[in-house]
Amino acid sequence: xxxxxxxxxDPRATRAARVEDLLARLxxxxxxxxxxxxxPAIERLGVAAFRTGQEALHGVAWMGPATVFPQAVGLxxxxxEELVRRVGEAVSxxxxxxxxxxxxxxxxxxxxxxxxxxxxxxxRNEEGYAEDPRLTFVLATAYTRGLRGDHxxxxxxxxxxxxxxxxxxxxxxxxxxxxxxxxVLHEYDLRAFKGAVEAGAVAGVMPAYNxxxxxPNHLSPALREHLRGWTGQELLVCSDAxxxxxxxxxxxxxxxxxxxxxxxxxxxxxxFTDHGTDASVITGRIRRALERGLIGESDVDTxxxxxxxxxxxxxxxxxxxxxxxxxxxxxxxxxxxxxxxxAEQAVVLLKxxxxxxxxxxxxxxxxxxxxxxxxxxxxxxxxxxxxxPLDGLGERFGADRVTFADGADRxxxxxxxxxxxxxxxxxxxxxxxxxxxxxxxxxxxxxxPALLAGRTDLPPLTCDATGPGEATELALTDWGxxxxxxxxxxxxxxxxxxxxxVRASADQPGGWVxxxxxxxxxxxxxxxxxxxxxxxxxxxxxxxLKVAAPGTLFEIVVIERGEDTVARAAAGADVVxxxxxxxxxxxxRETEDRRTLALPPHQDRLWxxxxxxxxxxxxxxxxxxxxxxxxxxxxxxxxLWTAHGGQAAGSALxxxxxxxxxxxxxxxxxxxxxxxxxxxxxxYDIIGSRQTYLYFDGTPLxxxxxxxxxTTFRYDRLExxxxxxxxxxxxxxxxxxxxxxxxxxxxxxxPRVPRPHRQLVAHxxxxxxxxxxxxxxxxxxxxxxxxxxxxxxxxxxxxxTYVFEAAASSADIRRSVRLTVPGDAPRARDLRRDGxxxxxxxxxxxTEMVDRTRVSGDAVTPLGTDGERKAGExxxxxxxxxxxxxxxxxxxxxxGEVTLSTxxxxxxxxIEVRAGGGPYDYRTxxxxxxxxxxxxxxxxxxxxxxxxxxxxxxx
Length: 955
Prior knowledge:
The protein is built from 19 helices and 47 strands. The chain is an alpha+beta fold. Helix 5 (133-148) packs parallel to helix 6 (182-198), helix 12 (333-345) packs across helix 17 and helix 13 (389-397) crosses helix 17. The longest helix has 21 residues, at 81-101. The radius of gyration is 30 Å and the shape is globular.
């Protein structure tokens, strides 16, 4: 090669050789600079700047107008991997097209989110696909294949899976630790990532903010021990924003940032997202870590090699050969049709007693806070086009046949000190320059929309109206948990900008800190209006309403209750459709978990008022998560659920309600009847605490996989062969063409350890004409019958009888068949040969997992703080002591007491632990043997602030 064209520019060379050539040409400072999210250009080599991280969860986000598809949980409800693949392809085509005109648009895509929807109170429930690991990785694989493209060498975009690992809570997310025992780790949390990575269309992962077993995810040994072993390709690990700094500032896991950054790099973090576009902080830490010998240049090389491999795959160094360089597909008719199709397929019919579909010519009362909304979330793009339920039903049934009421309370505000609140111009302000009409505040193209400020070009509200006739009528919507929004007659929400003034300026609530929500604080003689975003009180000042102490008392004068408006509209209709649910920026979102599964009380009153006025009432729940609506299920003739469906949400819902499309969405997670049912938000042990459809012992409101149709289906002749290929015949026995989602579950007939009630192993969404019959073939991988055997320390498929169930949901089993499957025989734990890792227990009470060292390994400790720590117990089944245990040693840290006993409580030994030192100062504590021979269950009781890592037995 000539000097003008070095080997790394030669497309005939192998990718690995090209990467190594470029890597060898970089100076240490240049390599260090590449480790920040915003990697600078290296002009002397002609290497362009590069940014990791383009949000694209259900469309291109944060970069301005783009096609907006249904939320991820809505895509999960389609149970249609081919559809999800096409959505991923459309999104990646728009990314390429947008990048051609805006270099800020990145090709390293941070999507999809594969965190399992274990608990429906999680604030980011909308971002995941399902509570089931298999359904999640099947859909994630489809989406990443669409994002990646089908060229064997070049990638259209490079998708990164979020968020590694066991992340399901927003409260204190940077400091809470998920206690994950090996079975839950391997059978649940890892599976969602593993299937997608093994499929070959994943470029990397992003660690989560939380800790797992006491160790921050950005130091996760599972990155090395598991993730990188699932594929032969290099994977790029990108930190979450600010997480490297959290290692010291929030988690206090290290004393210095140099130690923390070095540890993260050695653990496998390759790109550091920290301090925004200012790379100097991170690169400075890396340089100082190199100077102190905490890392070597080879550690930097390893991370840069992974990043360069991804960049070569994206065609950056072969522009003339990049098959996706000339992509031009943005807001195409095909993308619009796909958004419509996806929104239609995501609608789930929860109940129908014959009210639906709505016949032509009917008079419809469309009511509720979401009846004329097309809501976006934090990871949405800006809408190019928009269809609300009111738009959709008006187009489908005729605007003259639809009566609308949003159900908000109409109020006026009077300052107790005198004067009525007035909105200058009545809130009819036009969109700000450069902002699309209808765009949510914070949705304009920006790398970090959290930095966008509210509008200050409008006059603030005043309190100079002398009577109610001059005061502005405001629409008050109560979203639950005490949060309200207030809208002016022109539709704009009251919002607070950086200058503290209250204006009718926002088209929608939005932003990292929502500035459009308030609380009413009751006091004698009136209410204080508290701005939720700042926590300050609204005061009447000479130049307008602003957030400032001490706050002004207001009298809330109700003009009309929302329930009365809804009842009046319902009484004059043939059919009522109540559209309730959530605003994705309020009560349940990133940084904020929900407090309850219940509908907000105001929305609950709305459907009850509608039903009292007209029993022909359907409730549509448009939300990013499930609700506990047992009363509505008992009283109303029809209920539906849809996630926020993107740009085509309204027209899709209208077509389903009209019967143009028979609903075939299926629930991707369990809908519980009560707040107590899902288990604790911070309890990640789905086996021990009996969580998700896999283990839940109660009766759900709606089961995983539930969803009805406007037709009926019959299942016949389920057969499963020795090769685990299942065949079942499905017939559409109704009069409408429709899709059916055929679900295949399996359960072990007589398990020796706790196993799922049933577990999804295959599914297929099939279309059937009226009277049509189809034999559906479903292939089951043998390893999906197995579980992680803590006695073996490996995945195992027990030999024995398995029950295969063809089902319409996890609670609606249509056909079943038993099959004897050869497999592994049960085996006792050989204590004298293998000892016992404390984390490999079979059952536990009152303990949690902690880190054995800062680098790797697990230990177990009793729950609680040192002053309130109670005894914890571990149970190890089938322990083989052979012909006797001559001695016992504990590997433990801290101080306390370990009691070894039989399963029925007979004490065998009490061992005092006096390791002293810190939490990682483990010492071996010997003790004389135990009076046991043969196989027994062993109970281990822990008392005090100790950490137990191992128990070893000698002969």
